[in-house]
């Protein structure tokens, strides 16, 4: 007898067989479920993807649209160049990651091997420029300056240069017509990144790996319109990659052209005069600091007063935007971004902010009238204004006696505005304000559009700053701990200021309001904000959002999308007050603080108006501001560390007006020499083939204007550039300084 069943299987064996059967059935169930998922649930999707295995795409990049000035002159367009590119994918398949090929390529192109190798690196947080910040799967341009001989050498010896191509391509060109630069206005391009491709995948404007996108300026603001749409041709291929037919083809759509309000001739003159004014300022001695003015940066804006359109916008220091074309070199990148560069990529017209000095008095005047003070009233213009032990001095200690607000603007009397602001501070409750203070001086500034963006069609505009009660509270909360840690009651000037700020930096102090009334203290504005304000004063009170784009025109010329001026609001000023302001600002030109720079101007034929400003900056030399306008234009110029408003900027602004209206140095008007006596109306003519007719431009309009503005009987000064004449009162007038001593609970002087 035996216990073994007839089948010969023990209970243990049977259990094992059952387990195996369960495992097999589970595997079959899993495979069946997966098969259902692939063939039924997602069958259509995978069928579509599988079809792509035998379809290859060939991308034809779209031609980027041109950027044109107001007369149709190209300021950014395209040109055909021989571009040598490297396929990173092919290079990485080589044993040495393609270093030998790139070294050999460098020899042909006359470049350093290390420079070429660095260009194919991928950019990340640890990799400095030069590197590739585009998609790693698209060809990486090594140079766009290859000669025909170099390109032919690479193509004929293709076996020596695997992964390397040399093809004619359309590349961006910043034409600089008439030597106008406009770098910060135009911006630049760089390759699209994988992140950008992913983010734009499901939008109405997706990117292809071959795309170049705008990174700043107009190139970025109008990128979608300028970029166009790349063409894609799809070929059917067999398993060996041989083409067996064409599946589908989408034509490339060239980008639209952007017509701007920039006039290249005026742009060149503005750039030239700004640079010349800065160079001249550096030759002037600053008695306060005991050294010449540094004049390290500046900006100028020329704006149509009745539309807000920007005719010229210059920022200094500047750079050549063509440096970015074809990939920027490490040397050029360091020159543009290094600590010693002074950051030429910044557009100081919209990103440079500083205390406005006396140009801010247009706001303070309007605020005073809103608070109930008569424009034609009489207010004491004394040589100084005292608050406790602190003394705020008038410019050069001048004393004009009782004067109106208009006269106070004309002679730029500080003490009139000190007194008005101080009175309002006291009415609002002083250091311990009422529950709802009127704050006329601060509210009026916001009504003038300050403390926020103007809305100009350029990226990265800054807001400036109006240091009202809310700002002071927020700023105090953010800095209180640091102030309390480093401040000392009897320490240095800075330490005493920090000590006061620790105790009551959240309160509006008497000295804060006094300094604020003349555009000092913590107040910050940008040149574009001032241009909008003074344009509004000129046109009767309408605040426009500044614009540079004038129209988007399709490549075939059939579609024209005009960009209309946009109104931001109205100045909180009556017609009577505006009239008084206009008379005062005209007086600044004829007998006020700017008269010494505008002597001989044909005021009876072309009335000009101006307001000078000299802003103090703690630890630096004074900033020059000059705000001006005619019935047609507003011109704002500012130069950091350059002295007084009229002294540093007056002559340059005068010459820009000379160029606009054709005025010579002796005041004679020659309309033949006028670049733009009235603002450009309409758009340039669009030809039947879609091209845009362009106006003519000389080799250098700035030098032409120098020659035309000089009096015919003037004797040339051998020490000046050809065509210039010396100012009858050259130099920089004495810079104002007011006593700035800390004072507990009464207020302090903050210089920013």
Please tell me about this protein's structure.
The chain has 752 residues and is α+β, with helices and mostly antiparallel strands. The chain has 24 helices and 25 strands. The strands form eight sheets. Strands 2, 3, 4, 5, 10, 20 and 21 form a seven-stranded mixed β-sheet that branches. Strand 11 (285-286) and strand 12 form a beta hairpin. Helix 14 (361-370) packs across helix 17 (440-447). The longest helix has 31 residues, at 11-41. The chain is globular and about 120 Å long. It starts with 10 loop residues before the first helix and ends in a 43-residue tail after the last helix. Residues 716-730 and 734-752 have low confidence and may be disordered.
Give the structure's gist in a few sentences:
The chain has 752 residues and is an alpha+beta fold.
Q: What are the main properties of this structure?
A:
752 residues, alpha+beta, seven-stranded mixed β-sheet, five-stranded antiparallel β-sheet, 25 strands, 34% helix, globular, disordered C terminus
